[in-house]
Amino acid sequence: MLNRKRPQGEKKTRFWENLQTVTRLLVHDPEKSTRRLAYETGIAKTTVQRLIKDSGLRVTRPTRVQQLKPEDYPKRIQFSNEMIARFQADDNLVDNIMWTDDGGIIGPYFFESTVDGKAYIKLLQEFARPSLEQHNLMGTIYWQQDGAPAHWAKVVREFLNQTFDRNWIGSDGPSNWPPRSPDLTVPDFWLWGRIKQKVFAKDMKTNEELKAAIKFEIESLCPQEITRACQRVPHRLKRCLENDGGNIVYE
Known about the structure:
2 domains, Transposase, disordered N terminus, Nucleotidyltransferase, domain 5, globular
């Protein structure tokens, strides 16, 4: 009986083929189950799960909304009222918020390991601040981040207080970001879906090719398109109030 191991190059090629197949289906229909993906692709269910979980690319099945807890509703209402009032008082504020989700629209910046407090403070110190300084944005920009565990690190909050004074938005920040609210932040309700659709339509076989594709698509975004997306935030905050703090289904 022959027991020939598959060549390493062949295994890598199959990995990327399977990853792209699964991801394209998820981009088209984010609610597909792993069982359904396995059935449609002919890839074993355990392999599908491993592709999503262990690829190192953080390819996960996106959800249209996050399940809110009862205590989230008043926090979302308070945040929406506060930000709407600030937008009305400052016409330029919506264009001066750096919306982030483990990184910003400046970049891209690629994390090579788990995003913990140590990795996130490195992004802030070695990438975000120098980039903002290079574009003469320090002193005018507001930094926004969600409630990811890495953002809660003491060293992160100390850095933000020292760097942005009170001009930052986040959990326990000067402006308190409401939990489980990706529907209110530009990367989640607009950017990532758009980039994924473009990137995973390409034929990629290596991690470097994936990074290059992401970088190309982000750099291809026109300023007017980014501005329009950011200017949708006040409207979405009003929608949040109309829903009594409830979720806004992704458009």
